[in-house]
């Protein structure tokens, strides 16, 4: 269904859901009474009594007093319109229109088979998000007797004119049918679409919906969705509101992509795989692995037919988009690592390798980093979305995926080549770039001559009503700033942690960045970022829990923080609520604690993965302890192999951070020694304190400098002057006698 503004209503037969842009909305159906109106604004109606489920939607059209209902099938749907008692009811079909009211049909026709109560049509369309033209057709059949039927265009209704053809995309046209509903107010209309031809649409209509039994079709659709939604089962203690949100998110996760293999031959509607590779496909690997296999087999088929596989494949057309890199490779490699059955992995590897050899940008291949160039090695073009740094990191992630697949299949030479290439993200690491708030080392764009621009990663660009934007947003990273993008090489986490000063500084810095709003973890570039805190390399699951709770607390209503993005937001919500998160390209799932008393994943393997939460509440967000199959779990990680075999993960939750799965340190840092005063710049009115580095069994976080006019003074917030990571502190000379003390502090908050 599509609607015009918030107060208007009419049907569009096909629509791409939840991704924030206008797509499809073709073949408009408008039930009316009285004089037939062909203009959107004239025939639109306010609505009431609206109700929606996965298998059924109904609404009342107030303007006409018509109850409209629909229930879907794979390529078709059946509508039931209940008109008021009158002799002047009608149904208008606009063949040329798409969502937004635009004329999208470049050339096509509408045809009426009066004897069989059937209307067919379609043609070549444009103006979709994918800029390629595409063909689409429909076949519509109704069960009521005809009072009047014909076609229409800008010149009005054409009674009994049963065929109309147009070759421009400037004019609305279509068909109409009038009914006498004085005695029988119910009109059933079934329609099917095809991207191939009208005959294929007729075939779907006949095969999928036999007759006009609306209730039968509704129940069958319900059964289909119950099977899908039943893959995850919430425990009886979960409250009704939470169940509503959870299962709505589960529904959204399973809407797209769409299986059109019986139509044009492949799965379709990837808007885009940049959105879904981190969360949607990893979720489906657990619950619907056969669907993941079907998608990968569809990728293989497309590659054989088209010579490429793009992240954005819509209306049966490839669209080389490039929001990150070529992320379809990540999906294939991740499924291979999970051992998803039903795929020829040797064949799949050849297309992944083929993509790697052809669909890296030219300067990524030659220089080792992307400068903003959109031309691929083979001469094909990415869209404007291929931004310098996000492309470098994205392609490096893709190379890592290829390497992991090559290693598993025994292609050692390929493995060495692509694992080395995956390090190219380091070519955009500028160790000298420092933010205005004192953090050093970031990923940002690099010119072809090797130079970096001098910018402040913490510079605020503005707020667009959805998110805060920081330096680098849009011109350096796609939908991310420099702070956010610098955490994106999660596939090479050991190196990233090292570059950011080690695991303690990494956690401290990330916690700071999240607190400042530098990282929008409600958008795809940062989806994985929080869970690096729960990794073996960082060991701070308490901070992961903290920021998961911040997300869930901020977005408490029934909406989303931005575009839902084809299940990307929904599947992330499901993982957050359940208490675990996948790291695509590995077999690791990081743990942060559940928000549910009990949830069971009925896995594609046939086993059950049960998660239980003891003492779950809005306040108890931190894991106090955990067990796996009854045995103490001391790591904030499970593997794919553990989960697929089934088992029970039990969390004990509490309101305060605990030492669970963390490194414990009870030792003091060493004393600060050799505290001296440097007066070499006394003539400039400047003095400096210098001292030797302290040592710790973990890592020194900072040095706290205290000062007072009294020789013997306490170290507290009143006497604290500043904190620094350096072993020197400069200050201006004053007329007062001042005493200084310096203490070392480690990342566990222990001072000495």
TrEMBL record:
Residue ranges occupied by any Glycosyl hydrolase family domain in the UniProt entry: 200-655
One of the GO biological process terms: carbohydrate metabolic process
InterPro entries for this protein: 6-hairpin_glycosidase_sf (IPR008928), GH-type_carb-bd (IPR014718), GH92_a_mannosidase_put (IPR005887), GH92_N (IPR041371), Glyco_hydro_92 (IPR012939), Ig-like_fold (IPR013783), PNGase (IPR050883)
Region forming the signal peptide: none
The UniProt record lists the keyword Transcription regulation: no
Molecular function (Gene Ontology), one example: peptide-N4-(N-acetyl-beta-glucosaminyl)asparagine amidase activity
Domain Glycosyl hydrolase family 92 N-terminal: 19-194
Swiss-Prot/TrEMBL keywords: Glycosidase, Hydrolase
Enzyme kind, highest EC tier: hydrolase
EC number of the protein: 3.2.1.-
Pfam name, any one: Glyco_hydro_92N
SUPFAM superfamilies per UniProt: Six-hairpin glycosidases
Presence of the UniProt keyword Hydrolase in the record: yes
GO cellular-component term (any): cytosol
Protein's UniProt name: GH92 family glycosyl hydrolase
Organism: Thomasclavelia spiroformis
């Amino acid at each position: 269904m599509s609607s015009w503004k918030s107060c208007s209503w009419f049907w569009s037969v096909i629509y791409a859901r939840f991704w924030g842009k206008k797509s499809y909305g073709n073949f408009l159906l408008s039930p009316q009474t009285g004089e037939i109106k062909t203009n959107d604004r004239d025939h639109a109606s306010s609505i009431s009594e609206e109700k929606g489920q996965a298998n059924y939607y109904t609404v009342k059209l107030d303007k006409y007093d018509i109850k409209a209902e629909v229930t879907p099938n794979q390529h078709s749907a059946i509508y039931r319109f209940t008109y008021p008692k009158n002799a002047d009811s009608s149904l208008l079909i606009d063949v040329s229109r798409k969502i937004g009211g635009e004329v999208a049909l470049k050339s096509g026709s509408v045809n009426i088979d009066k004897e069989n109560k059937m209307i067919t049509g379609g043609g070549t369309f444009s103006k979709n998000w994918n800029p390629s033209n595409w063909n689409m057709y429909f076949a519509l059949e109704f069960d009521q007797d005809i009072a009047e039927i014909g076609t229409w265009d800008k010149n009005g209704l054409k009674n009994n004119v049963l065929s109309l053809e147009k070759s421009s995309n400037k004019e609305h046209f279509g068909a109409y049918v009038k009914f006498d509903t004085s005695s029988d107010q119910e009109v059933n209309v079934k329609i099917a679409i095809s991207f191939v031809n009208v005959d294929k649409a007729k075939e779907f209509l006949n095969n999928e919906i036999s007759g006009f039994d609306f209730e039968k079709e509704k129940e069958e659709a319900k059964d289909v969705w119950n099977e899908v939604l039943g893959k995850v089962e919430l425990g009886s203690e979960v409250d009704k509101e939470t169940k509503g949100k959870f299962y709505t998110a589960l529904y959204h996760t399973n809407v797209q992509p769409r299986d059109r293999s019986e139509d044009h031959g492949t799965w379709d509607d990837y808007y885009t795989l940049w959105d879904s590779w981190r969360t949607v496909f990893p979720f489906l690997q657990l619950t619907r692995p056969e669907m993941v296999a079907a998608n990968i087999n569809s990728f293989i088929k497309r590659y054989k037919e088209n010579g490429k596989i793009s992240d954005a494949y819509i209306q049966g057309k490839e669209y080389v988009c490039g929001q990150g890199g070529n992320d379809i490779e990540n999906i294939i490699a991740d499924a291979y690592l999970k051992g998803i059955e039903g795929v020829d992995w040797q064949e799949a590897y050849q297309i992944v390798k083929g993509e790697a050899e052809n669909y890296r940008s030219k300067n990524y291949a030659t220089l080792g980093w992307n400068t903003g160039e959109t031309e691929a090695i083979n001469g094909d073009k990415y869209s404007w979305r291929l931004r310098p740094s996000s492309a470098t990191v994205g392609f490096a992630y893709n190379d890592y995926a290829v390497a992991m697949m090559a290693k598993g299949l025994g292609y050692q030479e390929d493995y060495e080549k692509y694992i080395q290439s995956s390090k190219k993200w380091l070519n955009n690491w500028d160790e000298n770039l420092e933010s205005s708030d004192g953090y050093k080392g970031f990923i940002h764009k690099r010119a072809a001559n090797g130079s970096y621009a001098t910018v402040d990663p913490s510079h605020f660009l503005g707020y667009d009503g959805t998110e805060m934007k920081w330096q680098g947003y849009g011109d350096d990273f796609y939908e991310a700033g420099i702070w956010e993008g610098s955490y994106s090489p999660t596939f090479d986490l050991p190196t990233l942690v090292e570059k950011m000063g080690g695991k303690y500084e990494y956690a401290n810095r990330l916690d700071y960045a999240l607190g400042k709003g530098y990282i929008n973890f409600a958008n795809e570039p940062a989806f994985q970022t929080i869970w690096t805190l729960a990794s073996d390399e960082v060991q701070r699951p308490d901070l992961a829990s903290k920021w998961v709770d911040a997300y869930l607390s901020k977005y408490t209503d029934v909406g989303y923080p931005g575009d839902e993005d084809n299940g990307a937001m929904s599947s992330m919500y499901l993982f957050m609520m359940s208490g675990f998160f996948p790291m695509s390209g590995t077999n690791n799932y990081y743990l942060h604690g559940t928000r549910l008393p009990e949830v069971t994943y009925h896995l594609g393997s046939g086993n059950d993965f049960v998660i239980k939460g003891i003492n779950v509440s809005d306040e108890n967000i931190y894991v106090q302890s955990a067990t796996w199959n009854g045995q103490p779990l001391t790591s904030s990680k499970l593997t794919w192999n553990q989960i697929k075999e089934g088992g029970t993960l039990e969390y004990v939750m509490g309101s305060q951070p605990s030492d669970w799965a963390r490194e414990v340190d009870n030792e003091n840092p060493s004393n600060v020694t050799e505290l001296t005063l440097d007066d070499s710049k006394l003539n400039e009115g400047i003095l400096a304190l210098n001292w030797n580095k302290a040592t710790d069994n973990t890592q020194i976080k900072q040095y706290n400098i205290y000062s007072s006019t009294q020789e013997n003074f306490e170290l507290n917030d009143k006497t604290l002057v500043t904190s620094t990571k350096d072993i020197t502190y400069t200050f201006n000379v004053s007329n007062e006698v001042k005493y200084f003390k310096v203490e070392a502090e480690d990342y566990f908050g222990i001072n000495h």
